[in-house]
Specification:
Blueprint: H1 2-14, E1 19-22, H2 24-31, E2 39-42, H3 46-52, E3 57-60, E4 65-70, E5 73-79, E6 81-83, E7 95-97, H4 100-105, E8 115-116, E9 123-124, H5 129-134, E10 137-138, H6 144-150, H7 153-164, E11 169-170, H8 172-181, H9 190-201, H10 206-216, H11 218-222, H12 224-227, H13 244-254, H14 261-269, H15 274-277, E12 278-281, E13 286-289, H16 292-306, H17 311-323, H18 335-342, H19 347-359, H20 366-378, H21 391-396, H22 403-418, H23 424-432
Parallel strand pairs: 2-5, 10-11
Antiparallel strand pairs: 1-2, 1-8, 3-4, 4-5, 6-7, 8-9, 12-13
Helix pairs in contact: 6-8, 7-9, 7-10, 13-14, 13-19, 14-17, 14-19, 16-17, 17-19, 18-22
Length: 434
């Protein structure tokens, strides 16, 4: 990718234009991070870029951006520009082509405002980005309030960068402007908010991002349900760590660094139904949360739909929330029921949810260890093998389709899962005994 990007810049320079690597790729190179893409900035106008790359895509030409493909990679070539007003809170109403220095000053944060001369490797820094990188400081370029008002999503980007860039601190004036404008995040589309949240949730530093979202006021605007967990007390014998909010936060920190997005979401929302189901048993004086798993699953569906998550992500996350209380019964389950329980499509994430749920509270991991042992025991064959007996077998023997047939098939299959029916003949013999 870098070789192709340098070749693009060389072709622009041969045509008499300035061409630099710009923004995040420069930041990541200085930090020694993997570069996911390389953006190129130039003083060439879109028409001049197209003269060098006639097959370029003009879809962003109105904003001075031409998209070209080289070595199997897409590159954005953007003309140095100054932005006009942002009346829609996302894109400038107009742009004016300008110099590299002015282009740097219209960007969001200083660490994203640097250029790199690809031939010499020289860093061109008009905004103090290199010093802020060295001090691990995230600072808005110019007036922070102006930068956020141009596009309120930049507040979410600030949280994301402070999370994923190895715990950068947010400069005080930038932080104050973010807190003052946090309520405006509701003016940003759910899809754009979700994309930034996902980068926070899938970061190994997700607890840092969680805390910043809460302290900034963005969590209240985006996920007020999480703040409802604050002060929701739990039985101290089961949850000595404290309220539901504290419990959830600890769980986030116990997840492995590569935890899947649905797993992180299921951790966030596994107890979201507790405030609504809180009750105090007058006889025992004990706190209860009856059906909080079911209530929480319903709430999780609504929350994730509100943020425009895909059905696949919603289904996986909701499974974790809906089933997390069932682990307390695994040692009492018959083998057939246990195998069905373990064969569900998102069970790996559900088991990890159970592990961090217990570890963050009472430390009781016997059910987790039981499941791990059963996995080894069952590993020699599929948890749910092909049934020896099917519906056609019953129809051929005079059965009619309906609930009774389904019950019989389940009964025979349970015997198969229990190891009491080991061949097709033995399964068919169960019909003869009916």
């Amino acid at each position: 990718m870098e070789k192709a990007a340098k070749e693009i810049c060389a072709q622009l320079r041969t045509a008499g234009h300035e061409a630099l690597f710009a923004g995040g790729c420069v930041r990541d190179q200085l930090l020694g991070r993997e570069q996911k893409d390389i953006d190129i900035a130039t003083n060439a106008t879109p028409d001049q870029v197209l003269a060098v790359f006639p097959k370029g895509d003009t879809i962003g030409a109105h904003f001075g951006v031409i998209l070209i493909r080289a070595a199997g990679v897409h590159f954005e070539i953007a003309t140095f520009r100054e932005d006009g007003e942002y009346s829609d809170g996302r894109r400038p109403d107009s742009v004016k082509f300008t110099t590299a220095e002015n282009d740097a000053k219209r960007r969001d944060f200083t660490v994203n405002g640097m250029f790199l001369e690809p031939e010499s490797g020289e860093i061109i820094d008009y905004v103090g980005g290199k010093a802020d990188l060295e001090s691990k400081t995230l600072r808005a370029i110019g007036n922070p309030a102006d930068r956020f008002e141009e596009d309120f999503l930049r507040m979410m980007r600030a949280i994301r960068f402070a999370t994923v860039l190895d715990n950068f601190s947010i400069e005080s004036e930038t932080w104050a402007a973010l807190q003052a404008n946090a309520h405006h995040i509701s003016e940003v589309s759910p899809e754009r908010i979700q994309a930034e949240l996902n980068k926070v949730w899938t970061s190994p530093n997700r607890v840092r991002g969680f805390d910043l979202l809460v302290d900034s006021g963005l969590m209240r605007a985006i996920l007020p349900e999480i703040l409802e967990l604050q002060g929701c007390e739990q039985p101290p014998n089961f949850h000595p760590e404290g309220d539901v909010f504290t419990h959830t936060r600890i769980m986030l920190g116990l997840l492995k660094s590569d935890a899947s997005l649905p797993l992180v979401l299921s951790v966030l929302f596994h107890d979201v139904g507790k405030p609504a189901t809180f009750s105090l048993d007058p006889a025992e004086g004990r706190i209860r949360f009856n059906s909080h798993d079911k209530v929480g699953a319903d709430m999780t569906v609504k929350i994730l739909k509100r943020l425009r998550y895909s059905n696949d992500v919603i289904d996986a996350a909701v499974d974790g929330v809906a089933h997390h209380m069932q682990f307390m019964n695994v040692q009492k389950m018959k083998t057939a029921k246990l195998k069905r329980f373990m064969a569900r499509p998102h069970f790996d994430d559900e088991l990890e949810l159970h592990r961090v749920d217990c570890t963050s509270s009472n430390g009781f991991l016997e059910n987790y260890k039981f499941i791990k042992a059963k996995r080894e025991e069952f590993a020699s064959e599929p948890l749910l093998p092909t049934p020896f007996v099917n519906g056609q077998d019953l129809i051929e023997r005079g059965w009619e389709s309906g609930p009774k047939m389904g019950e019989k098939l389940r009964e025979i299959y349970d015997l198969q899962l229990e190891g009491q029916v080991t061949t097709r003949e033995e399964g068919l013999a169960q019909l003869a005994s009916t």
